Amino acid sequence: MKVYTKTGDKGSTSLYGGVKVSKNHIRIDAYGTVDELNSAIGLVRSSDINNIYDEQLIQIQKNLFHVGAELATPTEKLYLANGKSRLPKILQEIDILQLENWIDKMEEELPPLTHFILPGGNLASSHAHLCRCICRRAERISVSLKEVEEIREEVLKYLNRLSDYLFVLARKIAYDAGHEEIKWLPNE
Asked: What tens digit of pLDDT does each residue of 66-107 get?
């Protein structure tokens, strides 16, 4: 199978289900940003991090492929006539609860957050902060998409919770490496 198809050379592409749209369509922007996030998570994984976090991030990357597939599928094409999804897997509430569980476990070992903190720490922590920002952008674009086309609430909830997870992960990676958090104080 060739990587290039030449079908998008004039600025259009096809969504899952065959609907042709411009490459600047908001759906393309939404799942393209999710793809960017997935790649950025690969940067975190390529760092020296705890195996537990690496395994969690692998699961998250797999889920982001499902999110991207769902965002690339117009809602009217998402389900078959019998009500089943065309996609092999769509996000469920359990995927969101899993993120919350991981967040809770990390927060048990972290000092309470009393101020805003400056992103930083080490390279892995900084990459996790960058992932959080990309995730928030993916969420904002998906909210904009939801204003003009239907998308499932689970997609928005997952992206929202994932940005929380990435923030806590950034803190935990820095904490585990012995980096002190630098507080942002508004009067400084």
From this structure: 999 999 988 877 777 787 887 878 899 999 999 999 999 999
Domain for residue 56, yes or no? yes
The CATH number that applies at residue 154 is: 1.20.1200.10
**Residue 40: both structure tokens together:** 């950025």
Is position 55 within any domain?
Answer: yes
* Count of beta carbons in the 10 Å neighbourhood of residue 176: 18
Structure tokens at 21: 């749209």
Domain span including residue 152: 22-73+90-184
Task: Quote the tokens at residue 87.
Answer: 């996609």
Q: HSE, CB side, 13 Å, CA atoms: give it for residue 130.
A: 17
**What pLDDT digit, counting tens, does each position of 6-31 carry?**
767 767 767 776 677 767 789 999 99
- The number of folded domains in the chain is 1
How far is Cα of residue 83 from the mean position of the Cα atoms in its chain?
Answer: 27
Q: DSSP 3-state assignment of 3?
A: coil
Q: Measuring CA to CA, which residue among 34, 29, 31, 27 is closest to residue 150? A: 27
Are the C-beta atoms of residues 71 and 142 closer than 8 Å to each other? yes
